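Submission sheet (multi-component)
Chains listed below:
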Amino acid sequence: MHKNMKKATPYLLLFPIFIYYAVFWLAPVASGIKEVFVGMDGDFTLTENLKLMFRSDLFSESVLNTAAFAAISVVLQYVIALVLALLLSRKFIGSRFLMFISMIPMAITPTATAILWKTGLVKDGWINSLLMGLHIIDNPIVFMNAEGFQAILLLIVIDTWTVTPSVMIILIAGLQGLQKELKEAAYTFGANKWQILKDITLPILRPSITTSVIMRMIAAVQVWSIAVMVLGYSKAPFLVERIAFYVDAIPGVDTSTKLAYTYSFLTTIVVLLATVVYLRVSGRNKIAAGGEDE
Amino acid sequence: MMDRLNAVQKTVFAIILAGMVMLVAIPLLFFITVSFSNSTEMTQFPKNIFPSGEVTVYVEPKDDGKYELFYDYQDGSGYTSIITTNNASKLEKHFARQYAVVMDGEEILEEFSRTRTEGAREFTFRKDMFYNFKQFFKIVPNAGVALKNSIIVSLYTILISLSLGSLAGYAIARYQFKGREQINVGLLIVRMFPTVGISIPMAVMLIKMGLYDTMIGLAFLYSIPNIALTSWITSSIFIGINKELEEASYVFGANSIQTFLKITLPMAFPAMAASSMYSFLTAWNDTISALILTNENQTLALVVYKAIGTTSSGIQYAAAGSIVLIIPALVFTFIIRKYIGQMWGGVEL
Amino acid sequence: MSYLEIKNLQKRYTAKGPLIVDNMNLSIEKGEFIVFLGPSGCGKTTTIRMISGLEEISGGDITVDGESIVNKLPRERGVSMIFQSYAVWPHMTVYDNIAYPLKLQKLPKDEIKKRVQAAAEATEIQGLLKRYPAQMSGGQRQRVAVSRAIVVEPRLFLMDEPLSNLDAKLRVSMRTELKRIHTKQGSTSIFVTHDQSEAMSMADRIVVMYKGKIEQIGTPMEVYQDSATRFVAEFIGTPPTNFFDASIVREGQEIYARGEGFDYKVPSSLHSALAGYAGKEIDMGIRPEYIDILPDQRKQDGYFCDARIDFVEPQGSHSILITEIGANKNVKIHTVDHMDIKQGTKVSCHVKNGMVMFFDKESSKRIK
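Outcome: structure written.
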């Protein structure tokens, strides 16, 4: 009797979670999928809503922008962060202070970040104030007029400011975690600094860098609030920005709801694909490390 | 011998370091200053990087009993005439709105009367540093309620995530059972699932349940990834807690529940604290789901988001509001930074 | 001129800080297997790292074949090093690990292949060349480190506690393996360890170090039987040397070493050494196997004291007896003849063959 109870215990402990996720995850997911494939008249349709989305205003822009933003910002951030990490990964006085400062941009809500940058980007904002004060420019730049690709660049700059210091810290942690003797061994055999970096350090760090890049991309794909708060709706469309637009800017219209559902569906698919890649890569890492999955 | 830096390299290092710190700190400083700036300072150009606590005006007495007020916009043109009046309430409003100086109108006039004997002169007044914060909660509709709501929804989220998550974490850590691997993978997927993807269906469901526009409804959504996250963090810790400590407790006669409460739980406390803070941050910072799932009962994050849309003037109030938003986030992020590193860098503890 | 000369070697980490390595002088012949032995913090690892080029020296010189190497890179010194953690690169196969030093030297591919094969065969891991370190045991990884170290055919083979992380049985078998490789390669080796039995079994000569200084340089037998300082006598040998506080007393022609619970007539061979110590306090050290006991409590030549056996620890080939003499509550006696003596038996103790060591109390040096 006791043995049976013991066997059942884990399932009992997990029971609440099962129920919770059945109600609050499986059901909404199913419902969300259903809504995409049910037309406004209530009948099943494979493509009606998808077509609606494809034809909707700024659809292609939002897809392109999301892709461009995610790709460019992640690559840019990791390259900068890696260079900085390699330069700064020694222990020095004040390194703790650096760590703390670097975490701040990422710790503050995107909303606050947006306000922070908006106050700088307006014509009489502190960016122009600083640039003119340092005599780098003579006349104020009108950032807020940015359109198209320039607007995306602006957002990439803001995102880079937010994310790069934190990524740098994580890379520094990884570099410092690397066993000293692994590098020393290469040094005793005649490797110079570059060879040690290329042959030892980077390859060993590659798995954890890859997984963190994918996680960062998953977040980047869901960008929206800085776009809306700094530039406004529809100025720099992204996938999730479109969702917010249809919920917030023009709610109550039937097509809006359908579009919101369909965009959510698309975003979810994109993120899930990235998650699958993440699982494959981290699974491979675990095998290479020789450990069991724990 | 490998790591020695010569003098040139040391200077470069210091420059890069200083540059980095400045790049991060300067925008932050400007931002903080904005949140403390009064309306007049907002129109000034160039902008100050440090907040000032005082306002200086130049007052000239006029023959008709009025006073002419001058202000120096620091733009090189010296003192500019602002208003000429002797109306107490007008002065009071002006001082409050433009300078964030909160003073009784009569008192201001009394101060100004000194120019009749001393001649035209400057006056320096202390600014109410919290003026913008107070204004934010006054002007922005329901800001005070939103603050309360944010606290409530965050607490709900912690409660749900912690209780369900640590049960699951314990089960996964302590027991070998069929389906354990699959459950792990499943939890990972749920954890990384974009909440925005299910927000709209959730809204519909909550409407049916009568929970739309409630904090508990919002908490149900926030808890979805957080339960999985708590489960992951706590299972790592429970695995670390030596099983023999629990077994010793059984030998001494305690049953499973007592053991869990008195032995296991206290040792898992740091991990649970970390998961709680993570849950808190998700609920506290989120805007998009709150946008979808609430209508009138908004969270602070949502309220600040909406405030910035209303007008570009008065942005200093939104800035002040977002400082309130930021503070708990900063504190908690600092405390749980070790775990954040794990999450991002894929470094397992 | 010997092969490797260490002259007045010094190391400190900060300008005014303590000397980690304090004026070390050592000459090593070609082909010798030298062991640096000492407790942690004694400077042995720092010294070997200075020889390898991983640490800068603060003073003195190191020469190989007459040429100073202190300003040369490790590769230029012709050294090869094995680390305590093996430092086998986890992202490379065994083959790539062993081949990497040769790749750095830009050797042609088939040359590399030949030498890697030979190095792997030397440690019998030629079957593991395609594996990754994570898929191997600690002992196998250690062999990879060894193969990698010998593939460059170094003139100086440096080993920093390479066996410390292995389990006991493997440690002992790897001792012979390493010596065999050392002999076959004809290398000159420096081996660092804190395990005195390891040092004893492997070394041609042992350099005993303590707090940055060399306590003694000698063959295993020399450091064992002819310990130069109290530290060496205490550190080397298991069970450790028994120590007693004694006063040297001259009575006519005889000299006695007297202390709490014992009275020992010093053999005449040691009289000249103790010449200046009459009336003074010294430390007296007797190794467990040099204490003979007589259960009938007779007093013979070399009589030391009477004692009661408190504990008996049978080891099979001998027994360790534990007794109390004076202030020393943990005196150990190594006996073969009286292996099955009963606990509580009263015996008389004798020093065998005058094998006693006297040490000056202030300098800790052996009185000879």
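Remark: The domain at 242-360 of chain C is CATH 2.40.50.140 (OB fold (Dihydrolipoamide Acetyltransferase, E2P)).
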